[in-house]
Amino acid sequence: MIRPFKAYGSQNGQLHDFIWHLGGTLVPIVLNFIRNPIFTRIFTPEEFGYYSLVFLTFNYFTLTLFSWLSSNIWRYYYEYKDRNQLPVLFSNLGGLYLAGSLVLVVISSVWYFNVEQLLVKKLILFSFLYYVLNDITALYLVMIRLEKKTKEYNITQSLRAIINFAILCVLTFILKMRIEAMVLSFFIATILLIIYIYLKSVRNYPYFLPRLSLFQIKECKVFLTFGLVGLITNFTLMLLNNSDRYFVALFHSISEVGIYNQNYAIAYTSILALTTAFMNTINPNLNRTLTQQISNSTPVVARYMLIYFFALAPITFLIAFFTREINYILLGDAFRQGYSILSYVSVSLFLFGFSSFSGTKLKFSNRFKLVIAAYITSCVVNVILNYFLLQRFDYTWAAITTLLAFLCLYFILAISDRSVTLYFISNYLGSIAVSLLSLLIVVGAGWYFRFETVSPDKIIPILCQMALSALFLYAVNYVLFTRAKDSGHSIST
User: Fold this and answer.
1) CB contact at 8 A, 232 and 372
2) Which DSSP string corresponds to 243-303?
3) pLDDT tier at 12 (50, 70, 90 boundaries)?
4) End of a domain among 182, 199, 215?
5) pTM over 0.85
6) Residue 362 belongs to a domain
């Protein structure tokens, strides 16, 4: 019998890492759950609409210019470390980052001077300042994750979230700023983190600080080639997650963009943050396995998929089922009508996490064209469905098109990497079926005991219902995991 986390890595190592990553993830989640009820009662849906459109647009800019740099660290860090050439790696990535920053300056300046609304100008300026610095912190955080500095990584992330929230409260309640305070608080917190990173790098990670003398065009070409795959997949993933806001703005209103975005953000913050915590825990070992033993990696990847399912399926279900109740607790009155969005988005993000295992293995197998084709196809499906359906139906259909697009992505990647899919089905289908049956039992009980309306006096009973449901589902999954059998393979560090 394979015990949880014993097969997952060393007996204590990855369990220790997961607890730290979970703690580091829960802090931002809790702060978001505190922030949402407060600020959705202060700022209007229209303000959130402008905020989300500007912020998401900068996401696309920085995704194109910077985010693929992180994928190169994930891919090449161990290779350069084994050759004692980490200064070369970070010096060349630093040069590419500087080039991207200059492009972002030009784009942001053109946009800033071509809009008239003062609010939008403020959002553009503060978003530029935040994003041009934020990707430095992203590179640093990937590095310390690969160095397995789990404690430092999660304390840094948690402190950043706490400082950001504190600054946001000062800007809003003392300085009386409007929604631009949300972006400005990100920027100020990032400045403080940059100072910390510099001092830490000088002492412990001198190779992280770029040196112009080590910049080589040949190295950059390698990074650009691999980064192109990450860029395309990340860009299409951004389109899958966020392009719907633009269609809502096109066919509906800015206020409905704000309502949609805040409901979407609840599921996004919860499921994606927990998925990130899980991936942060396994990625160093998974990437090393895929780098050094890819021909024997199928059982390892499939086992991680099983752990992911048992860990994330219950919380995904709870968000999808208790949408009305969660919406009532976490959002202001003006945002209540969009509660159904939570169901579709939570399942979509769960599917994305589940499909990423096959996608990662395909990338490490250098089957880049398959991965790119899968993401582009799913993105095209999403854009087409959004364009035609949002003209006819209300904005909540944007969440349905997102779910259909992620289903498309999952099936394409699962079929493309049949070895993992078939191994997973042949070894774990029975356990998955029993887990899904337990979900159906909770659905039946939930419908029977569910309150017809939600009101302040029912919040405690509702939270008790959710807690009991979670306890039952995780208890079932724990038993199933301890009894899950494979072909004798284990996951080791």
Assistant:
1) yes
2) HHHHHHHHHS-HHHHHHHHHHHHHHIIIIIHHHHHHHHHHHHHHHHHHHH-GGG-HHHHHH
3) low
4) 215
5) no
6) yes
